[in-house]
Amino acid sequence: MEARTKIMRIGTVDTGAGRFVSLYVKAKYSEDGQLSITGVEGPTPSGNCHGGAGQIDMHPWNITTYAPGWNAASVKKLRAVWGEWHLNDMKAGCEHQRANWGDFGRKVEVVTYKLTREASAIQRNIKQRIEESVKKSGTVELLEDEREVYALPYTTKQAPDADGPGSGRYEVDKREQKAIRWIKQDEHPDGILCKPCEVCGYEYGSAWLRVEVPADVIEWIFSRPDTDKQPAWV
User: Fold this and answer.
1) Which has the closest alpha carbon to 127: 145, 151, 144?
2) Dihedral, CA of residue 97, residue 103, residue 105 and residue 106, to nearest 10
3) Mean pLDDT in each 10-residue stretch from start to end of the chain (234 residues)?
């Protein structure tokens, strides 16, 4: 297909505090088959804007009035196309993962634990004993439980095992909401980063994969109405 560019005004949005501005979306399709979609709320001549810009499909649009040729159904389809096909040559998952693994953007809570002050002090004491023993005799003798405590990492994403050496020696350091595509399974059971595909073995996120945008999707986007107002930029 030939290269195309489409600038669309979707409608008027309320960006808060009683500010109503136009929402614009720009779609570009390159000669080598890459689809790129970006948007901006209330662009100004200075290059700034009164709302969001870029991948604004990731947050709700508070549309108060639709531009000619747009309605709730067509906006919903635009957002779906945007989410699925934007930068189609930079997909992190294989065809099987995209079909079977659900929403890659789903967020889960990732908890980071750190050693308590008391546990850290115990580790320092053990380290000091090791250094002193090595200096004196060149050998080290540690009890089993000492070796286990000494080997504990300062931070971990794994909840301490109630029956393991970390029991009672960790506390919550922080809690974060992260999309499953950005975390590994050793950080959270639902993490998919580097998780192999059950069908072909490809590890999610290990390469950028290309997916051809269906012709009917391209036709739909570029048959949408051209903007009825000229934006300062988009």
Assistant:
1) 151
2) -130
3) 93 90 98 97 96 93 97 97 94 94 93 96 93 86 89 94 91 96 95 97 96 96 97 96
